[in-house]
Amino acid sequence: MSEALKPLAVVTGASSGIGYELAKIAVENGYDLVIAADRPEIVEAAQAFQGMGAKVDHLQVDLSTKEGVDELVQLIGGRPVDALLANAGHGLGHAFLEQSFEDILHVVNTNITGTIYLVQQVAKPMVQRDKGKILFTGSIAGLMPGTFQAVYNGTKAFIDSFSFALRNELKDTGITVTCLMPGPTDTDFFERAGMEDTKVGSDKKDDPAMVARVGWNAMEKGEGDVVAGFKNKVQAAMSAITPQSGLAEMHRGMAEPGSGQQ
């Protein structure tokens, strides 16, 4: 495949974790990349992917802002995007009333506002071409009230719901929309969210490479959603039949500060 004919994948949150693994899989499948993250490690990630033979454009940027998303769109330029992997996001632990509202806004604007703004900018040209794939990184957290993680779970409930709505709106086009719903994954998520002393933060977690592969395969098949990992599939099924009050109490046991200390 000549370099000029390589498809292009845009991956956000690609400096580490699931996003890094998604970008790696894209390269392994013959894609060139435009990658972005808010961490300086995005430079090292770009170098690694270039070493695998891909043409890579990278950007360290805050995707919680409209200006940051505009920078990324400008980097993409007029190139057709074959796959958009909207993975950028972060969490926020502890009690809602103890959280800084600035931190709350940053989570909401990263996980929701910046994500849907980017999707709108990238998906419009996809529709004009009648070709493209979109993968959201949602979460099984969106299926339950997030006691001591209320804002994060709320944002993921939005993304899980939004992805299905957009999928239905685009069902008569050549665009597919898939939502990857992982459970706790071995990334820096819990450290950044201040949740290392919680049960969910200290328990064993899924391999991000496995999670990314599950999401990528679902996107390639055009599936609507996929839950990564058997344990998470069971939890997702239970959330559909358990009362919301019970789910909130269950989440307290996982995310309450100090719950990881024995």
Percentage of residues in helical conformation: 40-55%
CATH superfamily: NAD(P)-binding Rossmann-like Domain
Quaternary structure: single chain
Q: How many DSSP helices?
A: 10
Low-confidence runs of at least 5 consecutive residues:
none
β-strand percent reads 5-15%
Structure summary, number of beta strands: 7
CATH architecture type: 3-Layer(aba) Sandwich
Level-1 CATH class name: Alpha Beta
Count of individual domains: 1
Topology order in helix (H) and strand (E) letters: EHEHEHEHEHEHHHEHH
Largest sheet: 7 strands, parallel
Global morphology: globular
CATH topology: Rossmann fold
Structural class: alpha/beta
Quick description:
By secondary structure, this protein is α/β, with parallel strands linked by helices. 48% of the residues lie in helices and 14% in strands.
Features:
262 residues; alpha/beta; Rossmann fold; seven-stranded parallel beta sheet
Question: Can you tell me about this structure?
Answer:
With 262 residues, this protein is an alpha/beta fold. It has one domain (3-255): Rossmann fold (3-Layer(aba) Sandwich). Helix content is 48%, strand content 14%. It contains ten helices and seven strands. The chain has helices at 17-28, 42-51, 66-76, 101-129, 150-169, 189-192, 199-202, 208-221, 230-239, 244-255; strands spanning 8-12, 32-37, 56-60, 83-86, 132-137, 175-181, 225-227. It has a seven-stranded parallel beta sheet with strand order 3-2-1-4-5-6-7, sandwiched between helices. Helix 2 links the parallel strand 2 (32-37) and strand 3 (56-60). Helix 1 (17-28) packs across helix 8 and helix 4 runs parallel beside helix 5. The protein is globular and about 50 Å long. One of its GO terms (molecular function) is oxidoreductase activity. InterPro entries: NAD(P)-bd_dom_sf (IPR036291), Sc_DH/Rdtase_CS (IPR020904), SDR_fam (IPR002347). Keywords: Oxidoreductase. This is Oxidoreductase.
